[in-house]
From TrEMBL, chains A, B, C, D:
The lineage of its organism: Bacteria, Bacillati, Actinomycetota, Actinomycetes, Streptosporangiales. It comes from Actinomadura rubteroloni. Gene3D superfamilies: 3.30.420.40. This is Glucokinase. The keyword Transferase applies. Belongs to the ROK (NagC/XylR) family. NCBIfam families: ROK_glcA_fam. One of its GO terms (biological process) is glycolytic process. It holds the Pfam family ROK.
Length: 314, 314, 314, 314
């Protein structure tokens, strides 16, 4: 068993890579997701697969990690608003186009699997991976296996409710976790501060060229690294919601490790230190139970490609 | 394999039964839990096991389902406030006393396993069992196996937080789910109503002989069955919190079925109808995903005995 | 002008006193409120007035301070659930029975007026009086005058909402201030603690003879005075809600002093110190504005009689 | 007495008018607020007063309505972040420059007084005026007089807390009313919706030229008038918080009328209908008490000038 291809299908880009059985990416390619026509997306996927498979004829299978709800047979995407897919039989379509066996998986699950096999989750049979980016994604490893749930739709951590009647979420509900603990939540926090208390947010506004709307994650991280009190407070707020949510997940799942990925995780200890504090203060039964590790992910954005490629191998 | 013994070790009583491999209880016995001396509890367990094993010499193993945190080796109870146990090596103690192999499991897990094998969860490989009593207990079945978590302490559903800075919980935190969705929560709701708005709670107070403190679960269920508006409102409030919490668990775990047990589940459809409504209104991605069944448990309070006995068999 | 009679008409007792123009009570009498028949209440009021007026023939007028909504003409009680009165023309009735001019006022307003004229509010032209007992009552002094509002129903402080979807209140709403900051709220807090965390509430339970339901205000105060951590935490929680509410009232009314009465105020500095801390931390514009005094009331339960008697004088 | 000048001193502009004793503005002038130098602001005020007083030599006094905390002597602005003033002796400065008596009042109070004397509050001795704009301002009329509070800082309605640990406010606290019920809150609501659920907010985004940041109040009002469901939902959300807050103020102040001004009030019945519904559902004691009128202000942005001018007359 040798090479497989992993493809990460997101709302803005399709990224693919040839992956060997050590989880190393041999070669990578990316294309923009064709936003005008959801039908076209299968063709773009086929195109990048053909390109890579042409150069690496040993490739034996393809794993697609895609946004949205993937069905229990790992064949059809039930619902992916960012890709404008509904009941899309993507496995069959791509297999027809590329002539290789295809496995489909939710991108959060693919990422979790990648980290579990080759990243920060190695050696952890009970692991929860959380990606903090635009929203919250991730996956659950139980006894060394990916726990997809009965219908393949589990691990939608971003949408358990943490505040009754709280902030509006794109899913149609209010108070979802990802509205409080994600890269977007950090930006939301900083812009809010800049709008209602510009005097406190001087450095953030400076980095945002005077406009709250131009404050993005990297500026907040930079200001926090400089010791700016406002930026640190934004991190602390988001870290408290994150730590509380991890404590909630520990009550339910009791993992041995949390692996934190996504754009927000690039802040490293700036995020992790207050997350650990908040987790420790919120965990039920604290003092009477072993604690899970809380770690930053190791594979970065490539985790989805690596995980999808590995899932195609199994 | 034939007979095993299951023991349900709770804060007030020790209940044991000989169980055959169809999950039927052949004979049952119970003793009060010796509250004065936690050391004594092992002796009471040994006593009921000896009694039953004496009559059924084919018994090959013993399963203990016990309140509290059970360690990953299923040997030691790390922390069980109701039994006054800390780091109690109960497997070794009971094995020494009865001369049979002993397996220890958390009682919520034992109940979930019992329902999964012989009750309302039969045929469901991905199932979540929730018991609504004094608090909330339960267990998680993933791919036909009990998911105990890394340290054996998972499925503490009662303690994920649903209201920031909410009602005080016995675990030391505030806003835990079991303070809003449990048998106790129903009673709390009804007594509160009777205290602050006695005119609205006339029937409830009548059934409680005039005192809010004498309103218990059965009275509330009775009044609700009679159509009393106040009692129905109490059920609706608790059902909304229950349904919301199941929706949260679906976002995380995506089970094929929820099995609802515990004292509150005896209200049947009075509880289940509004729970299903609330669940349907709260589930993220509703309309784009298959729905789990929500069912009442079938084995009643014996589920823990049956489950523990079966776990001893594996 | 010389002597007048003040009557405090509550749900359990009718208390009356002859008051001189220094606000001193010359003689006092009380009767139980006839709960069986609301009609009877006017007769009991007349009875105590006649008794006192018989001994003090100089008495020139009667002031009634009564629970409930009093209309703008200070004649009719629109709604008083504790007295079972609806649109009760109590001024006319009592005048007919006693042959003296009668003025009717809400009991919270009477208390505020009493404290304003002869108690802790002397010399304060802008004062808010808050009584913390079963619920919250009180009154508002603006520019030396009682501010009754347009319809006579103002100063129902207990029923502004402090928690969306919060604790149920007897008024039919949820989240009213008096559910968080009152004598009852303190008891609620302590009993909750005793129920869910009996180990923490050992001293409280001891004083309550082992039962949460037998923990009352005086026991909590006693335990707090002994330094009991659980009792102190209950006080702190209630004091935080109280201080926050006073800060809210300062944002709206900007009084020069708050006078705190009612049963809870008997705890003195045990209550007042954390209330002042919470107020100072919550006040909008803190650091840029003069602070009001926060003081304990001086007249005790007699404030209502003194205030009602004085209002009859005007 | 005849003509006086009213000046409305805000963070962006200084607007002044000559007002006759019928509350009619005879002539008006405005200048930008000099943002670079707070000292300059007194000169700009003097400049517009001189200009008007030169043309109307009968002018006998000047009223300044200014943002910020005005002291009890109506002479000094204690704190006005938008004007960068701290302990600014503005009365003395302007009197020295213009040679006319000057009265200083908070702009919300001036507006309330204007509406009370010549606008929607005419004939209402107990009135609360609320302006819903960037934040919430307003004033309280008690028994026909402006209730300024003990230190002149009352009626800061925008900063009583309606959500514990809620949205961050520019005052440094969280959960202030103006974060939920104001023109800014409406815009916040609409932009949030457009960001997290662009599909639902199609018409709003269209009017905002595709960008959430370009959705402003007028666009939301326009969409709501067209019947757009998303815009109507935004209005409903803000109206619910507004109506709840008015109910809270009724519990405390029991006014005969609420007069609603500020930019948001331009939406008229679109706002008022759901505000009245929410008020009616939230008022404590509803059904047992007379209801206040809830009306739109009549004088528009000029209310502050008219009120300040009239206060100079007294």
């Amino acid at each position: 068993m040798g090479l497989t291809i992993g493809v990460d299908v997101g709302g803005t880009k399709v990224a693919a890579g040839v992956v060997d059985d050590d989880g190393a990416i041999v070669e990578k390619v990316r294309r923009p997701t064709p936003s005008t026509d959801p039908e076209e997306t299968a063709h773009v996927i086929a195109e990048v697969v053909d390109l890579l498979a042409g150069k690496y004829p040993d490739v034996s299978a393809v794993g697609l990690g895609t946004a949205g709800f993937v069905d229990e047979d790992r064949s059809t995407v039930l619902f992916a608003p960012n890709l404008a897919w509904r009941d899309e039989p993507i496995k069959k379509k791509v297999e027809g186009l590329v002539g290789l066996p295809v496995v489909v998986e939710n991108d959060g699950n693919a990422t979790a699997w990648g980290e579990s096999r080759y990243g920060a989750g190695r050696g952890q049979d009970f692991m929860v991976c959380i990606t903090l980016g635009t929203g919250i994604g991730g996956g659950i490893i139980v006894d060394g296996e990916l726990n997809r749930g009965r219908f393949g739709i589990g691990a939608e951590f971003g949408h358990f409710r943490v505040v009754p009647d709280g902030r509006r979420c794109g899913c149609g509900n209010r108070g979802c976790w990802e509205q409080y603990a994600s890269g977007n939540a950090l930006v939301h926090e900083a812009r809010d501060l800049a709008r209602v208390a510009p005097a406190m947010a001087g450095r953030l506004l400076e980095l945002g060229e005077g406009s709250p709307e131009r404050i993005h994650g990297p500026q907040i991280t930079q200001a926090a690294r400089e010791g700016d009190a406002a930026a640190l407070e934004c991190f602390k707020t988001v870290a408290q919601w994150t730590g509380q949510g991890l404590a909630d997940l520990s009550a339910i799942l009791d993992p041995g490790a949390f692996v934190i990925g996504g754009g927000l995780s690039e802040a490293g200890d700036l995020l992790l230190d207050p997350v650990r504090d908040a987790f420790g203060a919120a965990l039920t039964g604290r003092g009477h139970r072993p604690l899970p590790d809380i770690r930053i992910a190791e594979l970065g954005p490539a985790a989805g490609i690596v995980g999808a490629a590995d899932l195609a191998r199994i």
